[in-house]
Amino acid sequence: MTEGRIIKAVSGFYYVQSGDDMYQCRGRGVFRNQNITPLVGDFVEFNETEGYILAVKPRRNTLVRPPVANIDQAVIVSSAVKPDFNPLLLDRFLVMIESKQVKPVIFLTKKDVIAEAEMENLIYYQKLYEQIGYPVELISSKEPEKLTELTRYFAERVSVIAGQSGVGKSSLLNVLNPSLELKTDEISASLGRGKHTTRHVELVEAGGGLVADTPGFSALDFRNLEAADLGECFPEIRERQPDCKFRSCLHHKEPNCAVKQAVEDGEVAATRYDHYLRFLDEINSRKPRY
């Protein structure tokens, strides 16, 4: 029995890397009865002669869309224009990543094609998220040396890249690993979106680490997140929760709320708190599942 890590999954086959060798395997039939689906990123035990995965080791974390396990960080790529920078969408990505106990990193792209006023807005948000504790990088396609420096975020880590279509995810991967030659179609003038041609999940070498080359996150609806857990996904709210009068405080209508006081005092950004309330309402309005 040999141990390795699933690097790619295509059409029911799992490609397991063990040392310098790659093995094509199938999952055991018993996995279906046990409701176990091997994922890219899984550490597994397999029989290299028969080509069967025998066991999937416990996971540190799991993402559903894209289906990847044991991720160290998520690089959220957001563009300044085409598509326009959207703080609400960025916070939605951050909440989803935080809920999976994955470390987020923020890349803001296309800073070279915006006006001075827009640049001031982008720098404002850069400072805001840095104060919260997130690493933030402003990226320009005209600064190739800066792009090369970004490899420090990927070295010896397993990462996923998340973001809207057209924000530059594939372009970033091409810089980190030119041999990938990922295809990126022109941004549609009518939709303001780009199209990524990737259709399967695979961990590729990039920047001295592994990156999940995927079609991106397609589920951002908080269906598995409860209202009581939402505050844990906002670091600045999580930090102040113990100071609220009520242990179960949702920081909405409750009295003596440390979070609401911090918003009034300017210690928590009003935009972030507004997004928190919008997400809270979305979760509370969700239809119950049976």
Automatic annotation (TrEMBL):
<keyword id="KW-0547">Nucleotide-binding</keyword>
<dbReference type="InterPro" id="IPR004881">
    <property type="entry name" value="Ribosome_biogen_GTPase_RsgA"/>
</dbReference>
<dbReference type="Pfam" id="PF03193">
    <property type="entry name" value="RsgA_GTPase"/>
</dbReference>
<comment type="similarity">
    <text>Belongs to the TRAFAC class YlqF/YawG GTPase family. RsgA subfamily.</text>
</comment>
<dbReference type="InterPro" id="IPR027417">
    <property type="entry name" value="P-loop_NTPase"/>
</dbReference>
<keyword id="KW-0694">RNA-binding</keyword>
<feature type="binding site">
    <location>
        <position position="257"/>
    </location>
    <ligand>
        <name>Zn(2+)</name>
    </ligand>
</feature>
<feature type="binding site">
    <location>
        <position position="244"/>
    </location>
    <ligand>
        <name>Zn(2+)</name>
    </ligand>
</feature>
<dbReference type="InterPro" id="IPR031944">
    <property type="entry name" value="RsgA_N"/>
</dbReference>
<feature type="binding site">
    <location>
        <begin position="109"/>
        <end position="112"/>
    </location>
    <ligand>
        <name>GTP</name>
    </ligand>
</feature>
<keyword id="KW-0342">GTP-binding</keyword>
<dbReference type="InterPro" id="IPR012340">
    <property type="entry name" value="NA-bd_OB-fold"/>
</dbReference>
<keyword id="KW-0479">Metal-binding</keyword>
<feature type="binding site">
    <location>
        <begin position="163"/>
        <end position="171"/>
    </location>
    <ligand>
        <name>GTP</name>
    </ligand>
</feature>
<keyword id="KW-0963">Cytoplasm</keyword>
<dbReference type="InterPro" id="IPR010914">
    <property type="entry name" value="RsgA_GTPase_dom"/>
</dbReference>
<comment type="subunit">
    <text>Monomer. Associates with 30S ribosomal subunit, binds 16S rRNA.</text>
</comment>
<keyword id="KW-0699">rRNA-binding</keyword>
<protein>
    <recommendedName>
        <fullName>Small ribosomal subunit biogenesis GTPase RsgA</fullName>
        <ecNumber>3.6.1.-</ecNumber>
    </recommendedName>
</protein>
<feature type="binding site">
    <location>
        <position position="251"/>
    </location>
    <ligand>
        <name>Zn(2+)</name>
    </ligand>
</feature>
<keyword id="KW-0378">Hydrolase</keyword>
<comment type="function">
    <text>One of several proteins that assist in the late maturation steps of the functional core of the 30S ribosomal subunit. Helps release RbfA from mature subunits. May play a role in the assembly of ribosomal proteins into the subunit. Circularly permuted GTPase that catalyzes slow GTP hydrolysis, GTPase activity is stimulated by the 30S ribosomal subunit.</text>
</comment>
<keyword id="KW-0690">Ribosome biogenesis</keyword>
<dbReference type="InterPro" id="IPR030378">
    <property type="entry name" value="G_CP_dom"/>
</dbReference>
<feature type="domain" description="CP-type G">
    <location>
        <begin position="60"/>
        <end position="220"/>
    </location>
</feature>
<feature type="domain" description="EngC GTPase">
    <location>
        <begin position="69"/>
        <end position="218"/>
    </location>
</feature>
<dbReference type="Pfam" id="PF16745">
    <property type="entry name" value="RsgA_N"/>
</dbReference>
<feature type="binding site">
    <location>
        <position position="249"/>
    </location>
    <ligand>
        <name>Zn(2+)</name>
    </ligand>
</feature>
<keyword id="KW-0862">Zinc</keyword>
